[in-house]
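Hello again,

I reread your note about wanting to compare the complex against the isolated chains. To keep things tidy I'm splitting this into two emails, and this first one only covers the full assembly. Below are the input lines as submitted, including protein chains and any nucleic acid or small-molecule components. They are followed by the predicted structure of everything together. The single-chain runs will come separately.
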Amino acid sequence: MFSNVHIVLVNTSHPGNIGSTARAMKTMGFKKLLLVNPKEFPSAKSDALAVGCIDVLEKAKVFSSLDDAVASANVNIGLSVRTRKASIPTLNVNECINHVLSNNNLKYNIIFGNESSGLSNSDLLKCDYMVSIPTHKDYNSLNLSAAVQLITYEFYKHSNTHISNKKKPIVRATAKEKNYFIESLIALMGQTKFMSVKNSKSLTKKIYILFNKANLESDEVNMLLGMLNSINKKLNK
Amino acid sequence: MFSNVHIVLVNTSHPGNIGSTARAMKTMGFKKLLLVNPKEFPSAKSDALAVGCIDVLEKAKVFSSLDDAVASANVNIGLSVRTRKASIPTLNVNECINHVLSNNNLKYNIIFGNESSGLSNSDLLKCDYMVSIPTHKDYNSLNLSAAVQLITYEFYKHSNTHISNKKKPIVRATAKEKNYFIESLIALMGQTKFMSVKNSKSLTKKIYILFNKANLESDEVNMLLGMLNSINKKLNK
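Full-complex prediction:
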């Protein structure tokens, strides 16, 4: 169940939250946990809160960068309580659930940021979509594992009633393929001076958002890379 | 918002869970917390986990018995992960939410039991309805504050879309009125020897369930009490 969906925690400060997250996941049938730069893991504090689900912690994979953690997924979805200025495509919770349940041939990461600061804007650029959990306007400080609990609950609840539609499966590119192309493009734009120290931040952002929205397939990325290669060859001839 | 709904924690062992519950509540617009026999409260451990919502803890009311805590509510709803043998009326989560959102003239308690043992069978007899949160069959050990988070989230989510229907408001009896009648009836049944030491437990249960299901209005309880009184007068003449 949900074997194509990873829960990803980024820069988690409190090991107890990793244990609580494991428990939240397992109550809803999730078992695959990825950790990016946890402050303390493994930890007795994590284990103490993972009542009956040490197996989730034992199988958790630890990464030193978000890039590495997102690489093998086809779709990366970042959680954010704040509305960002960035025009990253947003999904509401139901749209997010439907996306995942309608495409069980794709690998998904559902990505949660640090307890106090959430996901950074540069982290969100690695996400195809952004999702916000609805909270009361006066106080939106969801605990990290509570946020994981709510999202996994929604998945579990909807999976019981969801009827998969039979549309043609998408051979979607992995994030690694897509981001390799984007970085290559950015490098090229530096080389061409289109991108300068002054505009690099805003341009990088626009490029990521554009290609994230494109829902690129593997063949399309290969084609784009072929185009870049041909340009590079020509430039460096 | 949700000023007619109390969250009730019964026999809570870990003060940290009280703090986490306050936080879970406030993210979804709930502020009224009742505590029945908490092991440790007030507590620095509760405060530490109630980031930004000490106000909920400060206004929490502490009771020494569930009877006292449920007394002023019209409808008491108990959470249970287990399916009970007792035929207490059950609602699924959506039915529970609709019940509350359709009757904002009524006072509700949503009642959560102890971390390891949940609500006892005698606690559940004080509940008009029982609600279970769906969990995966292999592992149903929801953390206490996670359960509160899920229920309050469902309320908050649905309150944004719910259109209150204009049906005639019910002048529903309070639990205190109803339970006073039930206890009077049970006393009478002891007096009449209908209830013996041998059958008192199972009979008590059946009586509670019957009258809980009846959704008694205040006038009806008054009438029932009048009937009891008339019997008692006759018996003790």
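For quick reference: Residues 218-235 of chain A form the longest helix (18 residues).

B.
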